[in-house]
Every structure is written in structure tokens, then in C-alpha cells.
Design a protein that fits this description.
By secondary structure, the protein is an alpha/beta fold. The chain has helices at residues 3-22, 27-40, 58-65, 77-86; strands at residues 48-52, 69-74, 90-94.
Length: 104
């Protein structure tokens, strides 16, 4: 499956997935994955961060609130739009993360 096909499938599911996540229904994300991920990070204030596959942007927004200068990349337009509506804390790009050229 190439990136365009993946993006098409995510695009069809974006709004429903985002609603479920924001209602707290992704228990593993909020109870296991995010706490473990954030615990591994150093203090982020003043650092630059890259969130490839940012989805609806929850991690990007949290890291930006903690003072990181974030760039968020999403292959799927609808998720990037949903993310953009909630956050002005990060630079957002709609692109395949394998394309490179970020932060130049």
C-alpha cells in the first residue's frame, strides 16, 4: 500500500477517529502510551520537536504547551485540518513524512 492509499483510508476515518479519541475512548493512548512516551523525554522547553504522523495533534499540542517549538506532519489532509482548528502552537504540514526537507 503506498502513501496515497494509506492517506485515503485515514481520510475516510479521520473525523470519527478524532471524535472518539477526544472523548477519551482510546484508553491505551491516554493511560499507557502517552504517559510512557512523555516520561522518556527530557525537559522540552526551548527544544524543537518533529511529530511525524501527528494525527489530530494531541502530543504536538501538549509538547508545545510545555514550551517546545513543534512541527507536525500528517499525510492526511483531514487530520491536519482538525489539528489546525485546535492549535496555533505548531507549524503544520500535510505531506508524506518520508519526503524530507523539514527544518531546512
Amino acid at each position: 500500500m503506498d502513501a496515497r492509499e494509506v492517506a485515503k483510508h485515514w481520510e475516510a476515518n479521520a473525523e470519527a477517529w478524532t471524535c472518539q479519541v477526544r472523548r477519551g475512548l482510546d484508553v491505551f493512548r491516554y493511560e499507557l502510551n502517552r504517559p510512557a512516551f512523555f516520561a522518556m523525554l527530557p525537559p522540552v522547553r526551548g527544544l524543537r520537536g518533529l511529530d511525524v504522523g501527528c494525527g489530530e495533534g494531541a502530543n504536538t499540542r501538549q509538547l508545545a504547551r510545555w514550551g517546545a517549538r513543534m512541527v507536525a506532519i500528517e499525510v492526511q489532509e483531514r487530520r491536519a485540518v482538525l489539528h489546525a482548528h485546535l492549535s496555533s502552537d505548531a507549524e503544520r504540514m500535510v505531506r508524506d513524512g518520508r519526503q524530507g526537507g523539514v527544518g531546512r
